[in-house]
Structure formats: C-alpha cells, structure tokens
C-alpha cells in the first residue's frame, strides 16, 4: 500500500540545514492500522502531511500502491489524494458556512457521486455516528467534541482506501474517543488502511503497530 524510502524534510537556514524528518523508511500494508507517536516536534504531523500529499517539499521516494508519488506533478497528486485519502484533522477543518449535512456531502461531490446516491451515503453516515439531529446545524453551533465527530464522519463518508488521522480523539470525551477508535479499528479490519498520530498510549494501542519518532528519526516500531 505505502512505501517510503529515505524520505527527508529539511529547511535551509543561515546556520545550515535543519532537518524535520531524516531517512524515513517505512512500509505499511493495505488494511494495516499504524499509530505514530513521539514528543512534540518529532515530525509526526509532517510525516502525515507528506503521506497525505499536503506537503510536496521533501526528498526521497514515496509509493502509494503502484503510483510513484515523488514523480507525479501537482495536479496528478491532487487527483490521487482525492481518490485514496480521507483526513481527520485535529483542528476539525470543517467548512463554517456549510451545515453538517453539507460538510459530509462535499467530499462526495468531489468524486462525482450522483445526487441521489450522495443523499443515501450521507444519511447512512449521519446515522452511523449518531448525529442525525445535528445535520442542519453549522459547525459554530456544535461543541468541540461534536465537531470532531463530524470531522471523522467526513473522512469516512467517501469510503477511502487510506484514512490519515491527526489526534482524532483530541477533543472527545473518553467514551466518544473509544467509540471513534473502535470505528477506525473496524474500518481497518474491513480493509481500510489507517494511520493516526496520537499522544495517547491507550488509543495508540488500537493500532496493529506503533511507529515512534524522535527528533525526526524513526525508532524501531512495535506491534
């Protein structure tokens, strides 16, 4: 599914190069659930952004299925991003001027899903997350935890092959967090590849494997 070879991210300063990531070599199989851990500044979110093709300023090789991402032009990377990936952001990134229903519908419109089919998928997703009663509300009318649930639902709504989650339970109560993690675990069992960044040891343990980063280097991963 994913193969990173000697991936590096650095900034050029007057004092020389500052490395955010160094010599990352990582293979993730389809359907695998990987948790990325490490202290602040270790490069966790940077690595997630590279895998998600939100960051193109890096060195090395990145293969997603049979696609050599490092050789693709920006337009093709964006197309691959939309085809493969669902995101859960720590800061929600919901569209403030759209209702919950419309926030879930938008990713489907990017994939040219027909209107009637979009309605069915969105309704099923609203029901699955227990947020049917929130469908006509705007993000500003929701609590932080409710916004995070909508963010996870939006990532799932397109049935992506890969879900990238940056602190997906960061703003949820423990019961809601466990519910979200159980959902991600089930998606993994059904064949969706999950990569999450987390500081929480309990939630990290939901993964099949934990990858530890420190000062931009990848330490030995554990299963």
Number of domains: 1
- CATH homologous superfamily assignment: P-loop containing nucleotide triphosphate hydrolases
> Shape from CA axes?
globular
Query: How big is the Rg?
Result: 18 Å
The strand line-up of the biggest sheet is 6-7-8-3-9-10
Structural class based on helices, strands and sheet pairing: alpha/beta
Estimated share of beta-strand residues: 25-35%
Q: What's the number of helices?
A: 7
Characterization of the model:
The protein is of the alpha/beta class. Helix 3 packs parallel to helix 5 (144-156). The chain has helices at 44-51, 74-84, 100-110, 115-128, 144-156, 174-189, 201-204; strands at residues 2-13, 16-28, 33-37, 59-64, 67-68, 85-88, 162-166, 193-197, 209-214, 217-218. The chain is globular. The mean pLDDT is 92. It has a six-stranded mixed beta sheet, with helices on both faces. It has one domain (2-218): P-loop containing nucleotide triphosphate hydrolases (Rossmann fold, 3-Layer(aba) Sandwich). It is built from seven helices and ten strands.
Helices and strands, with pairings:
Blueprint: E1 2-13, E2 16-28, E3 33-37, H1 44-51, E4 59-64, E5 67-68, H2 74-84, E6 85-88, H3 100-110, H4 115-128, H5 144-156, E7 162-166, H6 174-189, E8 193-197, H7 201-204, E9 209-214, E10 217-218
Parallel strand pairs: 3-8, 3-9, 6-7, 7-8
Antiparallel strand pairs: 1-2, 1-4, 4-5, 9-10
Helix pairs in contact: 3-4, 3-5
Identify the notable features of this structure and list them briefly.
globular, 223 residues, six-stranded mixed sheet, 7 helices, Rossmann fold, alpha/beta, four-stranded antiparallel sheet, single chain
């Amino acid at each position: 599914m994913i193969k990173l070879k000697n991936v590096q991210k650095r900034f050029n300063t007057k004092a020389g190069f500052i490395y955010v990531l160094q010599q990352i070599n990582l293979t993730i199989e389809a359907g695998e659930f990987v948790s990325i851990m490490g202290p602040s500044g270790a490069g966790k979110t940077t690595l997630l952004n590279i895998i998600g093709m939100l960051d193109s300023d890096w060195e090395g090789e990145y293969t997603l299925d049979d696609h050599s991402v490092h050789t693709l032009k920006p337009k093709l990377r964006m197309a691959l991003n939309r085809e493969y990936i669902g995101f859960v952001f720590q800061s929600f990134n919901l569209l403030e001027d759209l209702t919950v229903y419309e926030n879930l519908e938008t990713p489907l419109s990017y994939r040219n899903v027909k209107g009637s089919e979009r309605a069915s998928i969105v309704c099923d997703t609203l029901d699955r997350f227990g947020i049917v009663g929130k469908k006509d509300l705007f993000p500003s009318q929701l609590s932080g935890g409710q916004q995070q649930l909508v963010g996870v639902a939006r990532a799932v709504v397109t049935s992506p092959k890969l879900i990238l989650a940056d602190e997906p339970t960061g703003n949820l109560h423990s019961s809601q967090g466990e519910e979200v993690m159980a959902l991600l675990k089930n998606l993994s069992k059904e064949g969706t590849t999950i990569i999450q960044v987390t500081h929480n040891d309990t939630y990290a343990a939901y993964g099949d494997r934990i990858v530890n980063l420190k000062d931009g280097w990848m330490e030995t991963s554990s299963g």
